[in-house]
Amino acid sequence: MSDSKQKIKLIDEKGLRVDGRKPDELRPISLKVGILKQADGSAYIEQGKNKIIVAVYGPRELHPRHLALPDRALLRCTYRMSSFSVPERKSPVPSRREIELSKVIREALEPSIFLEYFPRSAIDVYIQVLQADGGTRTASITAAALALADAGIPMRDLVVACAAGKVDGQLVIDLCDEEDKEGEADVPVAIMPQLKRVTLLQMDGSLTKEEFQQAFKMALSGCMKIYEMQKEALRREFITIREEVLKAAENNENKNNKEKEA
Amino acid sequence: MPFFVENKSIVAPGDLLAEGEYRAGDGVLRYNSKFFAMYVGLVEVRGTTISVVPLRGSYIPQVGDIIIGKVIDYTLTTWKVDINSPYIATLSVDQAINKKFDITRDSLTNYYNIGDALIAKIIAFSRVEPPIISTRDKGLGKLRGGMLTRIHPTRVPRLIGRKGSMINMIKNETGCKIRIGQNGIIWIYGKSPELEYIVVKAIRKIEREAHTSGLTDRVRELIRKEKEALRGGSNE
User: Fold this and answer.
1) pLDDT 10s digits, A101-129
2) Interface pTM (ipTM) of the complex?
3) Burial class of residue A217 in the structure, from the number of CB atoms within 10 Å of its CB (0-12 exposed, 13-18 middle, 19+ buried)
4) How far is A226 from chain B (nearest CA, A)?
5) Do B56 and A152 touch (CB under 8 A)?
6) pTM
7) Whole-angstrom Cα distance, residue A18 to residue A8?
8) Of the four listed, A35, A40, A205, A248, which is most buried by Cβ atoms within 10 Å?
């Protein structure tokens, strides 16, 4: 048993990881905002092989009514893994893990939102994992913050998440599925980068105090890199429309000038 | 007193806008002497006040707003009206009709029925009470004929334009009657459905390009082109 575990080498002689990354290298990330027409806000994230869609509805009328809070909106989060998201078919019944992750993600997002602006209403966040490859909770938080901003919900700051961990005795960031399962430790961290607040901090496995501090620092630097991408993704649509308009105006001007010359 | 962003630039929530002695306007969060954006939106600097105009978001009722809503339910003495906001509005009989209302003889559906579109005014709304609307003022009440369309509530000021410049231009160019609800619902009544569709097209363009400058001229151009195409089509 222990022999078969030993066989899997997560870090090769050159110090590269199973997918060829350096220890402090993130997986390729792509972020898209506003992909769903019916939702008030939506986002899509691809982080390595992770593919996650997040939809935000609200603030909207809360049903059932008795859940309403008199002084603020109710934030509801649903994290769901598609049955085809993992190699072995996952039962579509919400598992214990999914329910727990829903709660953990909700608590990571909650401090960033001005819930008190919308008393008695509800904000719903639906997270659908289409393909899972380790670190779905961090990717979900990153995408959910984007979807919330896209819905125009007032926020103190965006929320970014990134994990750090230990595999083969080496500290690394943004663990993939294999590293997550075979590695020694995993530390997911979510932060509000401008306000410098931590909204999620978990640890699975074991690290020494020094290792933990180092891993935490590495996760933070990963977060800051993803944060830049988040901001870019939010602005992209508006900036492209603006550029389009400017270009069209320029073309028009050129046309007019040519006509004048002719 | 440094500024970290330019006027009219697009920001994301949490972006640091400025540091120093300024005043925080709408959509801006102040921490000590630092100013952060709360929405995805446009930065607006007026004197020493910094604000962020949101480009996304739902309609939050404000007392005095004229809105367009749809009747979704009624009780013995009130209608429930969907006003495209997180809160459902209440319209009571005494705020809707001028004569005395006798529940034993009369029914609310004789006035407004489920599915009717209403143009109304918000007369009360606060953190503790749902919005209350009235249709008693002049020009308010049931909308008949024409068509309804939506625009993002945050783009409504852009559709109206400075002192109504944009909307007046659209009205003049197409000859349509247009009523705009602050909640982003728009009623259009024209001589023909084709003209109404041109207005819808113009509204779509405004919605998409709300954050760009020189929009009025581009929309005018669009309407004239569409009108020409319409004329050409009818001649054939």
Assistant:
1) 999 999 999 999 999 999 999 999 999 99
2) 0.89
3) middle
4) 14
5) yes
6) 0.92
7) 10
8) A40
